[in-house]
Amino acid sequence: MNTLLEIPATPDAGELREWITARKPAHRLFAVELFQDYPVQEAVAARYGLWEGLDLGDPVDALRAQVRLQGFLGYDMIRIQPRVAMSFFRNTTEDPVGPGTTEVAPRIRSWQDEHKGPIDSWETFESFPWPKIEDFDFSGFEWAERELPEQMGVYTLTAHILEHATWLMGYETLCYMLYDDPDLVEAVFNRVGELSDAYSRAACDFDCLTVLWGSDDMGFKGGTMISAAALRRFVLPWHASSARIAHEHGKMYWLHACGNLEEIMADIIDTVGVDAKHSFEDVICPVEEVSRRYGDRTGVLGGVDVDFLCRADEAAIRRRVRGILDECLPRGGYCLGTGNSVTNYIPLENYLIMLDEGRRYFA
Asked: Domains along the chain?
């Protein structure tokens, strides 16, 4: 069973940057993921004995565990994320248990209240306990500056602009307020954006950071979650600001954004200035077609559809991976990965087959 991933991988974040930005010829597989559900990480580590001798309750050993795991899987970076960056704005209503695969334990999945949030008026806006950049714990970055292996890099998620606004107001309330009180909506977006910029600047001060990765779902299968005009007014300027911050510090700016964003793709590429775009779903637009349309203007990341990975057999996965690489690699700037993230309901074997076939492509 452990014959998968027999071909070794050697991470090099500098090579990754050259591949994305300079489109230098690929001599090896470049792979990325937004994240893997933690039970998936545990299952991989147990299968290959990657975390032996580590105390995962110790924050430093937990970071060492990520270096071992991500390096073994062939990723050039580890993710470092102060919890307050995402969790402060959560407004969940239930925590159902998501089903896992036979090798991967269940994960608790929380669901956001789509109807309302803690901010629904100027009074609640003013009284909301907005976090400050001083509330963020950067000790993980400080460790990476000292101890991260020389050729590995760090990425961090930032610019959850629309996501945090919908969490704070509730998606339904936000949609009403776009018409009833656009000034309040703008104020919420500005507070979210200002905090995002502060975090982006702080993270970019660390030499170990390779990628500032904006993470902001803006669409569903049929189109954008709010109008393209509203996205251009309230959301995309903050992503452009994060991209400027990244580029001023010599970092890349990538964007993870789910949904059908065809209406604003030109804005994402030309106005925001992303170095690479992530999150693709076959029922919206297969990654091969995305590459044909935009691969000469920006990097294209992932795209092996999550639903496909859940259902396909080994032969189909290997064919699909080779087909994607055949189509996308010649344009440069493509990295293999899932269409979204490595969820606990993707069979572990299928995830590893995807990576294994990518390595074999260059063997």
From this structure: 13-361 (3.20.20.210)
Quote the DSSP letter at residue 254: E
Listed in sequence order, the residues at least 6 apart from 361 whose beta carbon sits closer than 8 Å to its beta carbon are 29, 321, 322, 325
**If pLDDT is split at 50, 70 and 90, which confidence band does 101 have?**
low
Distant-in-sequence, close-in-space partners of 48: CB < 8 Å, separation ≥ 6: 2, 5, 72
Q: What is the pLDDT of residue 288?
A: 98
CB-side neighbour CA atoms (13 Å) of 282:
9
User: Residue 8, Cβ neighbours under 10 Å: how many?
Assistant: 8
In whole angstroms, give the CA distance from residue 322 to residue 318: 6
* Cross-strand pairs, 38: none
Please say whether the beta carbons of 132 and 88 come within 8 A: no
Enter the DSSP assignment of 314. Answer: H
Q: Is the pLDDT of residue 1 over 60?
A: no
In this structure, are residues 294 and 328 in contact, taking their beta carbons and an 8 Å threshold?
A: no
The β-bridge partners of 260 are none
pLDDT of residue 113: 80
Q: Look at residue 26 in the predicted model and tell me its pLDDT.
A: 87
Maximum separation of any 2 CA atoms in the chain, in Å: 62
pLDDT exceeds cutoff 70 at 92: no
